[in-house]
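Supplementary notes for students who missed Thursday's class. We covered one full example, reproduced here. Read the sequence, then the structure, then the short commentary at the end.
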Amino acid sequence: MINSTEALIKEKEKQKQELITQMEVLKEKYLEQLIVFVDLWIEKESLSTIKSNPDKVIDLGESRAKELKNEILKLRAGSSELVYKNMNSQHIWWHTNQDKALYYGNGYKLLDRIDKPIKKMLGVLGGLLNDYGIIKISTGYGAFSSSEASSNWSNEGYKLRITYSDELYATNKAYVSLISETQGINLEIEELENKKKRENVEDWWDSL
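Structure (token representation):
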């Protein structure tokens, strides 16, 4: 026979699963919005870099410059594959790798656990521009190997703050709100489990 405490635990577990399901839906929405953002970001950042380094681009010659342009277009066309390859890992998303850290959804800032792998992912553009000699990125960890290295890039990815789309900020805020709600339920479940142990201390003792 299920007592009242066990019934409450089951109810809380059900509520938690519903929130986890909502977070999985938001994650997919997040990724789809990120695909659109990455495509546009690569276009904007590559053009900005080209315009900032006209001599290096001209020195490539028409053939190599056209080759670089085609490689950038390939990157943009592969935005979906790039995002799902780098951002679909379970360790990135809270609902598949839960912890007890506090998260905040206010302001124009993505979660660090999401922002950092995005910047690392976008390092693919820096690597391409480096290969064609348009920029120079460091090979050392977190520091530039020479004064000629670009201030925008390191071997860890894109270094500067990224301004994301309003859609991504809104989805991030909704996701963080669900994290907070689920963490609250996790605490309630933990308290109920402890209460259950106290109510059934003899059975708990025997199970050790």
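Commentary. Strands lie at 153-154, 157-158. Helices lie at 4-52, 54-77, 79-87, 112-131, 166-199, 201-207. If anything here is unclear, bring it to office hours.
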